[in-house]
Design brief:
TIM Barrel
């Protein structure tokens, strides 16, 4: 898949991390049915590899599906085998290195300018600015756009609807959203509430793109 093209077109990466694998799969299904087609399933969730495999079987071979919280080479290999076609890391290291060896596009976590340079040198497709909210939110992303005007930056961490709009206006190629979007849906919570939040985020990203 072309991860960068998908980020630019969709502008929203949903992050599913749940304690209930069945609920996590239902959450993925709900997101996709609402039009949120770029989904990451975090390996820190319960039975995440099984959730990835089940989601891949349902969505088919062409749907973009990622694995997140990829820390090690073993994580990268297992996620790829389960059906993930892009990987997301919280930082630099063996997970990113193995993703590149496997030929998988990677959204690699970085925070400081030095880490951003290192991530690009290591072959990251795009840069996940994490935890973005802890560093000042949209103001920090806007500051990073100075030395890195052409790099695809994706803020993650505490991205509620208001922050998402501000990040996109500040030049983020996309935003990664976990709990502000998912709520408790991946733990067995209400799917109709998830569908409503998904619709609100999609409207926001469409407005930011117009």
């Amino acid at each position: 898949m072309n991860l960068l093209e998908s980020l630019r077109a969709r502008r929203l990466l949903a992050i599913v991390r749940g304690s209930d694998p069945d609920a996590s799969l239902r959450a993925v299904r709900t997101l996709v049915s609402q039009g949120v087609s770029l989904v990451e399933i975090s390996l820190s969730g319960r039975d995440a590899l099984e959730v990835i495999a089940a989601a891949r079987a349902e969505l088919g071979p062409d749907a973009p599906l990622g694995a997140g919280t990829v820390l090690t080479a073993e994580d990268a290999t297992a996620a790829h085998a389960a059906g993930a076609d892009f990987l997301v890391t919280p930082g630099l290291g063996a997970g990113l290195d193995e993703a590149r060896r496997l030929g998988l596009p990677t959204l690699a976590g970085a925070l400081t300018p030095s880490e951003i340079i290192a991530a690009r040198s290591a072959g990251a497709t795009a840069i996940k600015i994490f935890p973005a909210d802890a560093m000042g939110g949209p103001r920090y992303l806007r500051a990073l756009r100075g030395p890195f005007p052409d790099l695809p930056l994706v803020p993650v961490g505490g991205v509620d609807a208001e922050a998402a709009r501000a990040y996109l206006e500040a030049g983020a190629v996309a935003v990664g959203v976990g709990s502000p979007l998912l709520g408790d849906a991946a733990d067995g919570g209400a799917l109709d509430s998830l569908a409503e939040r998904a619709g609100a985020y999609l409207r926001l990203t469409e407005e930011a793109s117009s």
